[in-house]
Design brief:
The protein is α/β, with parallel strands linked by helices and about 220 residues long. It is built from 10 helices and 8 strands. The longest helix has 21 residues. The chain binds pyridoxal-5'-phosphate.
Length: about 220
Amino acid sequence: MSIKDNIAKLKNELPDHVTLVAVSKTKPGEAIMEAYEAGHRIFGENKVQEMVQKWEELPKDIEWHMIGHLQRNKVRYMAGFVSLIHGVDSLKLLEEIEKQGKKHDRTIPCLLQMHIAEEETKFGLDVPELEALLESNEFKMMEHVKIVGLMGMATFTENQQQIRKEFANLRSIFENLKERLPYIHILSMGMSGDYQIAMEQGSTMIRIGSSIFGARN
Ligand SMILES: *Cc1c(COP(=O)(O)O)cnc(C)c1O
């Protein structure tokens, strides 16, 4: 099937409250343009340099989401145009986003990444770290970042019960937070292999790469 068909098929499956981020990392501009011409506008990248290059070359009404692990020294390259940063997992990183947002005179929407998987290697905050960040004075003073939700990645496993349990855990952290901070409304969870479980568990934003663009090398 073509990229266009893949997008159409996916969008057909999604309820209205779930947003599709087409993960175009490693894929060329032509592939993105095929999705664009099918009406899609939201794309996710995991490397700042690659995202900046694509932003420069492609239509300006594309919304670019940074979904990967982000180094502080790279924030400034995308601070002027990035639509949503999914992977914020430290106060230090948030402070840099604040600084760069201020420079560009804009407020940058961010998701805090939670560690929900079993693997040691997955990035993210645990609940006490989330609380500490939200309670910090540094955070409370920020005017150029806006935390609009949470993001998480489940363990890479065939075990659907485990994936379901991890997503359910993230959902409950999300619901909890939403009660205290009413502007929290995005729960980014679900990739090609697990988005159905993620949606069943309350995801409002899925990040799909290979099911749209094909396998990556
Ligand atoms: C690559 C990536 C995706 C998309 O993965 P697929 O399995 O190709 O859908 C989603 N989220 C993050 C954080 C990624 O790095």
